[in-house]
Amino acid sequence: MLKEGQVRIPAGCAIxxxxxxxxxxxxxxxxITSITVMHDRSNGLGGGYAGYGIYPxxxxxxALHIFYxxxxxxxxxxxxxERHFDIINxxxxxxxxxxxxxxxxxxxxxxxxxxxxxxxxxxxxEKEFVVRCVFRVNTQLEGAYVFSSGKNMGVFKAxxxxxxxGRFYRLEEYAGYCWTCHGRYPTNTPGWWGGAxxxxxLDTTIVHNGEISSYDANRRSIEMHGYKCTLLTDTExxxxxxxxxxxxxxxxxxxxxxxxxAPFWSTIQRMPSPQRETLTYLRNTFSSLLITGPFSxxxxxDGGMMALNDRLKLRSMVIGERGDRVxxxxxxxxxRAICPELDRLWSPRGGEAAIFTLKGADGLCQ
Amino acid sequence: xxxxxxxxxxxxxxxPARCIACRACERQCANEVHHYDxxxxxxxxxxxxxxxxxRCVSLCPTRALKIVKSDHTFRENANWTxxxxxxxxxxxxxxxxxxSAMGNPKAFPIYWDKLLINASQVTNPPIDPLREPxxxxxxxxxxxxxxxxxxxxxxxxxxxxxxxxKVPIMFSAMxxxxxxxxxxxxxxxxxxxxxxxxxxxxGGLHQDFYQYGANTIVQVASGRxxxxxxxxxxxxxxxxxxGQGAKPGIGGHLPGAKIVGDISRTRMIPEGSDAISPAPxxxxxxxxxxxxxVFSLKEATHYQKxxxxxxxxxxxxxxxxxxxxxxxxxxxxxxxFRGGTGAAPTRIRDNVGIPIExxxxxxxxxxxxxxxxxxxxxxxxxxxxxxxxxxKAIALGADAVYIAxxxxxxxxxxxxRSCQSGKCNWGIATQxxxxxxxxxxxxxxxxLVNLVTAWKHEIEEIMGGMGINSIEAxxxxxxxxxxxxxTDRELSILGIRHAGE
Lengths: 366, 501
Ligand code: SF4
Ligand code: SF4
Description:
The complex is a heterodimer of chains A (366) and B (501).
Chain A: E1 11-20, E2 26-27, H1 29-37, E3 47-52, E4 62-68, H2 71-84, E5 85-92, E6 106-114, H3 116-122, H4 126-140, E7 144-148, E8 153-158, H5 162-168, E9 175-176, E10 178-186, E11 199-201, E12 204-210, H6 215-222, H7 234-248, H8 253-260, H9 265-270, H10 275-285, E13 295-301, E14 304-309, E15 318-322, E16 325-329, H11 332-336, E17 344-346, E18 354-357
Helix pairs in contact in A: 1-5, 6-7
Chain B: E1 10-14, H1 24-28, E2 34-37, E3 42-45, H2 55-59, E4 65-69, H3 82-94, E5 99-100, E6 115-117, E7 138-140, E8 163-165, E9 169-171, H4 181-194, E10 198-199, E11 216-220, H5 229-234, E12 237-241, E13 252-254, H6 261-267, E14 275-277, H7 287-300, E15 307-312, H8 317-325, E16 331-335, E17 344-345, H9 346-351, H10 356-369, E18 377-381, H11 387-396, E19 400-403, H12 405-411, H13 433-436, H14 441-466, E20 481-483, H15 488-494, E21 497-498
Parallel strand pairs in B: 9-19, 10-11, 11-12, 12-15, 15-16, 16-18, 18-19, 20-21
Antiparallel strand pairs in B: 1-4, 2-3, 5-17, 6-20, 7-8, 13-14
Helix pairs in contact in B: 4-14, 8-10, 11-14
The structure holds iron/sulfur cluster (2 copies).
């Protein structure tokens, strides 16, 4: 059977996210409880989490989480890392034996900073340098796969039910201001840990429920800009599109949402000027990055979280708010399970971006 | 010499029990096939002159007529077919180049018919176009690659000129001269009603049609007929014609006999002089010369109009297209070897060029490999026969398609492929007033609107089935296609998988 990346595997899913606007650190316990409620939306073939603010002691370093199939892959990859980065700290990511989680690869974590000489030589900005190194490892080093590469954040994922994945990675021992989570229902057995979600590039992470019909149009377009879609999953291509539009093109999250879940032309035409011109311009300029078909995504980024549905709202997603906490999930029960009393519960409309950022740090998401 | 006698290919069959000798067929046939024989008191036909255009058949009030393929035959020979033999007789008699009209009719593979389209089941819902918005609007032109903002951070929306199409189907170039005034009027009005564009071809723009300028693409070809500042500025876009699918590498020749009245005025050449389009543009011998023409045209139109460059699909089309994309052109149009023509040397039409499906796939792939696909729009033509062809073309990577033969068929063309005779009984490829008036532009434009509207509905249905509600999400979405009965090589050029994979 073909591995993920050699074949495209459609999947249904569950997603959940918690965000503290005041930046309060929350352990991974709640997010595990939340996703457990939606057990039936996954089928044990993939689960994962992204936590933000979890590495305050290393917040200025890129945290690379890497899967290795073999010790040789690890040796090769570490040689590569040493050539390009200052490695401040490295360790195995702590795990506990968990029923339902088997065939674990070697899972390592590195806190790194680009070597100033290498960075200068490359004539790239720091983030682009890191991105290129991640792509180098993932496409050229057999058996090594970087699945998390941002600062002060990390992705934890595996093949299994998401609640088991959370226990496996001992997420209750971490504390962060934002958690997103994903339970996967693929229609095929990839059996590869890298194929689980979230998908991450730098500090942008995506968890996604849906199956987009625009996939190959999006993939072929984004690959023109130096991204390489190795997994053939929606989540991967959405993460690259988000990175491209925000980091490389400098769009705000709101603008990015109006590209990937663009309003219908008929809606744009009814808008007042200059909004009408701006949205026409954006939609036309990035027309190949429009996503069609069902999706609901939670995008985590440094200092915030965004929830977005496809423009027809073909996938469920609700948002709950309590005090300065925000909850977003595929089903209301996943929110009520951890916060029975809510100040407000609402469903964002199709294509309507719900963006939450740390208090007093509104600029961060730009 | 008797060897020059060629048995007619078709026979006019008249049912004597039905024929009332009303002589309608005689009046309708510009080829003078029918006449009334006073001695016999009956209609008779000269089969040798019949081109099988069905005009008389369609207008016979008693349905007495049909045209049948003659069963007269040479001794059967798979190599020396009747066609091969008669062509030798013709050339031995005349010493001339054989001429034909319309697109390559030979039995080459039609890749459109070997592509199958996907639909959603279970994991992803189909969308019902009757209930949900389904968008077919497309913009042609370069997409800007940097976002610029003003001091307040608002996005500055100026970019390169764009052509907005309500439906990704345009009418491709057919010159006034090769087709009639009424045919042009029909195309222009239909383009306006549909929110799309028609193309003047290389014969200039008749004064009466300047009013449709907002829906007109004006063409600049090697003969430069009728090209002047007002013409360039009259259209919504300018197309430089480098080549044509039916006759790559060949120029054009409209005989002096057709250069009369309005046609001479519109082309800006004296009445009765031959209108000869040279094979090359004599100011373009290489890609850097093309760049100069592109920018001369942009200068002449103050950078307000997108410039298209149209080429024939030939062997190294991908490399050529990549050069054009870097020449400053806004849109590349590729014309496949099935593309129609008013007249072309038969050998060229039937043997030069490649199928548009393969050309499109390799151009789109190449432009993406080079990261420049967004710098240029991609329009393809050369036998788009129905809505499924349109969907497949867009999924392979086109922004929009050009149709011409399909449009003429909508106007009544019966593909008799005799356009070069100038005696088109349907009033399309002719300048004879009594024939031209058979094509009523009110009816013609309505039929074109009907055709494109019907295709639009079908495109929406097919897109909805795939769970796609906007045409841009279909563009280049090759995973929505599978091949059937294709070799690995063909699949890899098309960039698709085989059905069942
Ligand atoms: S040329 Fe056309 S109109 Fe004339 S006889 Fe043949 S089919 Fe009839
Ligand atoms: S345009 Fe007229 S002459 Fe040409 S193929 Fe059609 S019907 Fe025949």
